[in-house]
Amino acid sequence: MKYILGTAQFGLDYGVSNSGGEISDDELSRILDYARKYGVQYLDTANVYGDSEIRIGEMCELTKAFGLITKITHTKPENCVKGNIRLINSELKKSLKKMKRSAVDVLLIHNLKDIAGQDGEEIYRALQGIKDSGLAKKIGVSVYTVEEAEQVCAKYPIGVLQFPLNVFDQTFDKSGLLKILKKQGVELHARSVFLQGLLLMQDIDINSYFDPIKPLIAKYTEFLKNAGLSQVEGALNYVKQVEEVDAVIFGVQDRRQLADTLDSLRAPSISIDYENFAVCDCNMINPSMWRI
What we know:
The radius of gyration is 19 Å and the shape is globular. Strands 1-2-3-4-5-6-7-8 form an eight-stranded parallel beta barrel. The protein is built from 14 helices and eight strands. α3 runs parallel beside α5, α5 packs parallel to α7 and α12 packs across α13. With 292 residues, the protein is an alpha/beta fold.
């Protein structure tokens, strides 16, 4: 399994559990140095992650050790298709300049609407052109739901799928789609493994928005205690049990969190049943729908 460090925290006050704000330069240097030494292979970023691209470029002596995954800029509905293709190309080149890179390893479609409309096929051909030009090694898509993944993978030859997977959001694991895509050679990257930090929070700190699932959270906390697992270990142990996963994406606030995460990822998987903790309410498990 590959390890991918998310960079939203590099440029934003990101995550429901984030109380420390944006990461300082000194702490970011410690994170990157530790990540480089202990097996992180990629950085995952986007031009909407605040100044994360600028910071990746400023720390290029450290960040050049990692492969790079980024997303295309969102298209604009008022643009013609050629205008949106020019926008995608120009924004990618701006991003590469900021990050002091000549190319990325993976270029992801960040919003399915960008290729779902009548201009979708032409935009996807343009992305293939970006790949053919050497600016990206692989083209993929980031999705929120199984339905989105089924829709895009049925229409386009996707190389990489980035999708949510965690103890509370087990929809992809239960759908059977991962097995199908794995056989088709799609590289599967699990994100939201801590559900923006919700799986790492103490009950007293959890926003009242999550009151509908707080009884379940309490049961899960007791489950971890009985299993002898920390919150980080419990969350990652679930992901490690999903054998189709090729890579796991995670964010951290400091070097200590990074060390804990990597230690948990390298530890042997423990075979335990998480099925009773699956949540079906998308308002609880899809961060894009949270009203906090």
